[in-house]
From TrEMBL:
<dbReference type="InterPro" id="IPR027417">
    <property type="entry name" value="P-loop_NTPase"/>
</dbReference>
<protein>
    <submittedName>
        <fullName>DNA polymerase III, delta' subunit</fullName>
    </submittedName>
</protein>
<dbReference type="InterPro" id="IPR050238">
    <property type="entry name" value="DNA_Rep/Repair_Clamp_Loader"/>
</dbReference>
<dbReference type="Pfam" id="PF13177">
    <property type="entry name" value="DNA_pol3_delta2"/>
</dbReference>
<dbReference type="GO" id="GO:0006261">
    <property type="term" value="P:DNA-templated DNA replication"/>
</dbReference>
Amino acid sequence: MILGLPDEANLLSHAYMIDGDVDTDVECLQEYFLRLFGIEDIYQSVDVTVFDGSEVGVDEVRELVKNTVLQPYGNQKIYLFLHADKLSVSAQNALLKTIEEPAKNTVFFLLTNNSYKLLPTILSRTVTLYHNNTIQESSEEKVWIDCFLSGVFERDLIALQHALDEISSDREKSVRYLECLTERMATLLKGSYSEKYKYFYRVELLALLASVQRAMKLIRANTGVTATLDTMLLNIMEGID
């Protein structure tokens, strides 16, 4: 389930970025559109346009911009970008203007599992949504995540380095802990702030999440764990300064 989507069409924002498994997101949105608009098949509906970011260039996006002024046949015109992170920079910039000045009764959904590849200007103008938490933290993982987030909050470089040293010698463990950290940050971004973290700014959490996701992907791709975690830490400190 995608958390944060409203139950009424008139409460929809103009643009959403959904960070997760794209195929799962499509299935969830299909159920959501059926419930909200009676759309039985997003690929057959005249009011839903589906793009694959890996196949769409800047010219197609510019053509889309022209068509957004047309009124929907039903209640809402929906533009769905699968693998939005694969859009070129020029295509993202072309899309940005439309997101900044959306036509009436138009909503954009950008689906990705690599949100850090989207332009910061795109991220700042979309509502970020995540799936319900599916990872259960062990007591050891919970303590580690609490210590790590406290280190971020306190800007405590020594504490952060110590936390990363605990997992840097084990590739599998580092991926698991970063997965748990990602889920915890997703919970914070959904608004489930504890008293301890209530002073985190959303932009800081987004920067932190992007750095962790990038590191997790690189470690899974067999890059050096220690070097990747060191780079992640540097990016985190730069992102929250």
